[in-house]
Amino acid sequence: MYKQRGNSGALSTGMFLVSALLLMAYFGFAAIQGDFGHFRRNQVNAQAQELQLELAQLQVIRRYLENKTHRLSDKYLDLDLLDEQARKILGMAREDEIIIR
Fold first, then answer.
1. What is the distance between the alpha carbons of residues 19 and 24, in angstroms, rounded to a whole number?
2. How many CB atoms lie within 10 A of CB 96?
3. Roughly how many angstroms between the first and final C-alpha of the chain, as a whole number?
4. Residues with Cβ < 8 Å from 29, sequence gap 6 or more?
5. Taking the domains of the chain in order of start, what are their residue ranges?
């Protein structure tokens, strides 16, 4: 009534266990080393922090340039800044000034 499996049943069970262990090892390796793994995630987070620092530096530079541009605009004219820029570009000085280079 019952059929005995013998060695073929033990062999198939062993093959199943070996294949299951290999699959677990593969997925474990992929979770750590793969494209979406733990190490890649740490690398992306570090790169994001570097880019945040660069963005903050660029925003400071942008605010400085916007302020300088605003001070030379038609609506608001800073005469000291205009005088400084004209002297720098044209290379001019007043008679009572001494230029040190």
1. 9
2. 5
3. 109
4. none
5. 53-101
DSSP 61-77: HHHHHHHHHHHBSSSSB
Residue type, 42: N
Q: Is the full-model pTM beyond 0.90? A: no
* Residue that the structure tokens 């740490």 belong to: 42
Contact between 27 and 33 under an 8 Å Cβ cutoff? The reply is no
Q: Chain-wide mean pLDDT for the chain? A: 85
DSSP output for 7-51 = HHHHHHHHHHHHHHHHHHHHHHHHHHHSTTSHHHHHHHHHHHHHH
Q: What is the pLDDT of residue 22?
A: 94
Q: % helix / strand / coil in the chain, to the nearest 5?
A: 70, 0, 25
CA dihedral 8, 9, 15, 17 (to 10 degrees): -160
Q: What is the pLDDT of residue 46?
A: 96
Q: Which residues of the chain have pLDDT under 70?
A: 1-7, 99, 101
